[in-house]
Structure formats: C-alpha cells, structure tokens
C-alpha cells in the first residue's frame, strides 16, 4: 500500500507535529439536533422540566466539552479557545444546536465544535429523559441527528496578535 499514516501506524500512536505551522485565526461551526416529543418541546419552551432549565444546562455542557476536547479525542491537540458561542433553536419537533468555536493557533477547531454539539445535545437528552421515556423505559421519539461541521475558516493571524 505504501501509505504513511499521520497518527497511528502498526500500533504506534503519535500526535502530529504542528510546530512548523504558522498560527492562524481559525473558526469552526457545527450543528445538530435532538428530536423530541411535542409535550417535551412544550415543557422546554415553558421551562417546566423537573431537572431545571434545559438550555442553560446544555449550554454549559457544550462549552465545557469544547474546552476538554483534547482529553476525549485521542491525539487531538490542546488548543487555546478564544471564543465559544452556543445557539439553540426550539423547533416544532426538535431542538437544534449551533456551536461556534474560535481559536488562534496552528490547528483547526472543528472537533471542538462537534464535541460541543454532541455533548450539548446529550445534556438536553439527560435533562428531558424522564419526560421522553415511554412505559417500557424506552425513548421511541428521541434521537440525536445530523451532527456536522457546516463552516470552517482559516485566516492568517497578524503579527500583533
């Protein structure tokens, strides 16, 4: 095959050396959604979920996940996070989450944005699971879908930054 792998080869694992790459302003945006029952959506809108404010809790979880991505993704670089924004939209049958991550560094932040989305949506699920369970303890209407990176930008950082 003759391929050279950048991270793992023959059982040996190495982090990619990025020390020669110039620092750049980097931005990544990821989105995803959690499908929920109509009654749960209404309870989120009315702030009537027994565990507390669903979106406030999920926002904290998403930001924490962004900051700790390097600890959960093997061989992922620890990067300086300069900004994180979380935007929730409560729709008719789902809660959508958009996470924007910014950094100035030598590697991208798309994994951080994805970690923010998936963890934020997992926190929503955890907060509403009592409302979503059916009589058998299953979650027939609950599903996390479409976690994806929708934007990635790189801009050379100026000398003064």
UniProtKB/TrEMBL annotation:
Pathway: Cofactor biosynthesis; molybdopterin biosynthesis
Sequence positions that bind substrate: 75-77, 111-112
UniProt GO molecular function: cyclic pyranopterin monophosphate synthase activity
Gene3D superfamilies: Molybdopterin cofactor biosynthesis C (MoaC) domain (3.30.70.640)
GO biological process, one term: Mo-molybdopterin cofactor biosynthetic process
Residue runs in coiled coils: none
Active-site positions on this chain: 126
Limits of the Molybdopterin cofactor biosynthesis C (MoaC) domain: 15-153
Reaction catalyzed: (8S)-3',8-cyclo-7,8-dihydroguanosine 5'-triphosphate = cyclic pyranopterin phosphate + diphosphate
Stored SUPFAM superfamilies: Molybdenum cofactor biosynthesis protein C, MoaC
The protein's enzyme class: lyase
Quaternary structure and partners: Homohexamer; trimer of dimers.
Its biological purpose: Catalyzes the conversion of (8S)-3',8-cyclo-7,8-dihydroguanosine 5'-triphosphate to cyclic pyranopterin monophosphate (cPMP).
UniProt EC number: 4.6.1.17
Family indicated by similarity: Belongs to the MoaC family.
Keywords noted in UniProt: Lyase, Molybdenum cofactor biosynthesis
Pfam families documented for this protein: MoaC
NCBIfam families xref list: moaC (TIGR00581), PRK12343.1 (NF008999)
Protein name: Probable cyclic pyranopterin monophosphate synthase
């Amino acid at each position: 095959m003759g391929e050279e792998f950048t991270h793992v080869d023959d059982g040996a694992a190495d982090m990619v050396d990025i020390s020669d790459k110039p620092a750049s302003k980097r931005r990544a945006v990821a989105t995803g959604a959690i499908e929920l029952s109509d009654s749960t959506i209404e309870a989120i809108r009315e702030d009537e979920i027994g565990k507390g404010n669903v979106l406030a809790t999920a926002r904290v979880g998403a930001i924490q996940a962004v900051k700790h991505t390097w600890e959960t993704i093997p061989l992922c670089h620890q990067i300086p996070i300069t900004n994180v924004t979380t935007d929730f939209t409560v729709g008719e049958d789902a809660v959508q989450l958009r996470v924007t991550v910014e950094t100035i560094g030598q590697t991208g932040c798309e994994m951080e944005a994805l970690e923010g989305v998936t963890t934020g949506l997992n926190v929503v699920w955890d907060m509403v699971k009592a409302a979503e369970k059916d009589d058998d303890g299953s979650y027939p209407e609950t599903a996390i879908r479409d976690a994806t990176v929708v934007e990635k930008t790189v801009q050379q950082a100026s000398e003064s930054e």
